[in-house]
Every structure is written in C-alpha cells, then in structure tokens.
Amino acid sequence: MIRSRMKPFLLFLMMTTSLLATQPEKISSSTQAVFGGGCFWCLEALFQTLPGVTHVQSGFAGGVMKHPTYEEVCTGQTGHAEVIEVTYDPKKISYNQLLDFFWKVHDPTTLNRQGADAGTQYRSIILTTTPEQQRLAELSKKKAQAGFKNPIVTEIKPLSAFYPADISHQDYYRSHPNAPYCRAVIAPKLEKLK
C-alpha cells in the first residue's frame, strides 16, 4: 500500500529534478568591484551616493596576511590596503562608470597616501574580479592620465581575497556624521559632489 502511494510521489520528484536540471542558470543582477583610495570610510560614503550601487562594504585586500584586523593593517606590515567592495546593478551603472568616479574622488598620483593619511594601507588600488575588469581598469587608467599632471600610481591587480572590516567600520559616515574626521574630510567631499 505504501509503495503504491510512493510511486506517484517519486515520479513527481524525478520530473521536478529533471526540469530543474534543464533550467538555464540564473544570471546575477549584481556584481562586485573593489577599490582603494585612502581611508575606506571616505570611499564608502562617496560610492554610497551612486545610483545603481546597492551595497558598499569596507575591508582590506591586496596583501598577504589572512584575516587581518584593522590594527594590523594600520601597521603597514600586512601588505593590505583599506578598500571598499562595491556591489552594483550593471543594468543601472557600469563598471566603467564606477572607474570614472574612482579617478575623480581621490588623487591617484600620490604614492601611499591620501591627504594626511599616509602609508601603504592608504595606497590607490583597483582589485579586479574578472579578466574583463582587469582590461577595463587598465584602459581606464590610461584614459584618466590625461586629466592629471603627475603620473597615476594606482596599482591594478586581480583580487585574491577581500576581508571585511569589523562592524564598527561599516557605514561609518552615516553612523558618525559629527565625528571630527567625517566633518573635516568626508563631508566636504560629499558637498563637492553635489
């Protein structure tokens, strides 16, 4: 009796599994880009203003130490830079548009520093997640050079790992708009964007 009731269920299960296996793979409607250009609090606040950007996460990348802490990265000994991972909808904003914005919101001609922030952890860097991103980033760098008197020193290389910073560094400007750094550095840049 149980076996006879199981046959229709098993047949249904086999058909469903077969249908699922033949369905085309769903294409993601979002993708990631990773940029470093000084303090990640600043870049995070700036990229959050872009239509089509759905999430920005501060973290570390470009170095060799696994799972570094903020304090370790601040020593300049990990090889990591402070970076942001930008999740965006390519139907609303392109990777090239993100690159154009990147060149405009920091100084890519200063080696290992942005303003008063100095050290390899504050270097200008683009970490690519695909060969196409690598190609577009290199082309964009050549194009952007025309807008700068000094040579662009931005490092461009494939992303090997992204390590999110702890929660106290996420959404920093929105959570601490009156902090001295936010008022002195981030707020003027956001105002300039307007």
Number of domains: 1
Strand arrangement in the largest pleated sheet: 7-6-1-3-2-8
Radius of gyration, CA atoms, in whole angstroms: 22 Å
Assigned CATH class: Alpha Beta
CATH structural fold name:
Peptide Methionine Sulfoxide Reductase, Chain A
Task: Write structural notes for this entry.
There is one protein chain. This protein has a six-stranded mixed beta sheet with strand order 7-6-1-3-2-8, covered by helices on one side. A two-stranded antiparallel sheet has the order 4-5. The longest helix has 21 residues, at 2-22. The protein is an alpha+beta fold. The protein has seven helices and eight strands, in the order H-E-H-E-H-E-H-E-E-E-H-E-E-H-H. It has one domain: 2-Layer Sandwich (Peptide Methionine Sulfoxide Reductase, Chain A). Helix 4 packs parallel to helix 5 (131-145). The protein has helices at residues 2-22, 40-47, 70-74, 95-104, 131-145, 172-175, 180-193; strands at residues 31-37, 53-61, 81-88, 113-114, 117-118, 124-128, 155-158, 162-164. The chain starts with a helix and ends with a helix. It is globular.
Question: Would you spell out the secondary-structure blueprint of this structure?
Answer:
Layout: H1 2-22, E1 31-37, H2 40-47, E2 53-61, H3 70-74, E3 81-88, H4 95-104, E4 113-114, E5 117-118, E6 124-128, H5 131-145, E7 155-158, E8 162-164, H6 172-175, H7 180-193
